[in-house]
């Protein structure tokens, strides 16, 4: 299995990684326990988002060198902070942040920031895919009908498993295993959270921790190449409970569960480094 990372040649069944390789970039190393050749993430068999439907959705164009760039997703959690996966921002030199976009290349606002604006969890481990979370500080941004912050869980909900709850994932990833480029349009998929033991049976207990959330992907509906770091929100309350992390390496439409970083496990970390709390 592998995390949804930036660019690579491996085909991953990363069912919710919002890190998609841009058409001109390579796919980057993935947090697969067995390999780090690449990462992909896209929403397969999903639906097309309407303008302003996901005002917290962020697109990230990640520059590693003059020859290498990639794409990930993220979420706006305040006027100055974006939340995404550590495997998206690890090793980058510069990030262009797209806000308020439905068509991927047509944002309402765009900021380019250097790597010193990135905070990666100090215990991020790419081999074990643990603590896959990072923050990006951007210039203060005014909220509009197409740009606003997502709600984070309250401290009181720290121990909620969310098992059985319906959730929505969104991103610009590939729309099928056979697709050759990322989606121009923002896509979304509605799925269901399942017990972590469902993921453990596929990926093993060494990778599936209490700090993960597991989501089922029936009928080929899932996230895949290009979705890494993107938000997973409760359908009912629109509260973000996860961010796309990793999935199986066999393909995005085969029905394997997907693993996300569990936001409630990192509320203190988010508050400490950004001041954001709910």
TrEMBL record:
* Signal peptide feature range: 1-25
Entry's SUPFAM superfamilies?
Trypsin-like serine proteases
Quote the PROSITE patterns the UniProt record gives.
Answer: TRYPSIN_DOM, TRYPSIN_HIS, TRYPSIN_SER
Q: Which domain of life is it from?
A: Eukaryota
Single GO MF annotation? serine-type endopeptidase activity
Known SMART domains for this protein?
Answer: Tryp_SPc (SM00020)
The entry's keywords:
Disulfide bond, Hydrolase, Protease, Serine protease, Signal, Zymogen
What the entry lists under InterPro entries is as follows:
Peptidase_S1, Peptidase_S1_PA, Peptidase_S1_PA_chymotrypsin, Peptidase_S1A, Trypsin_dom, TRYPSIN_HIS, TRYPSIN_SER
Query: Does the record's keyword annotation contain Transit peptide?
Result: no
Please name the GO terms of the biological process aspect recorded for this protein, alphabetically: proteolysis
- Domain Peptidase S1: from-to ranges: 43-275
Q: Which family does it belong to?
A: Belongs to the peptidase S1 family.
Q: What is this protein called?
A: Serine proteases 1/2
Task: State the taxonomy lineage.
Answer: Eukaryota, Metazoa, Ecdysozoa, Arthropoda, Hexapoda
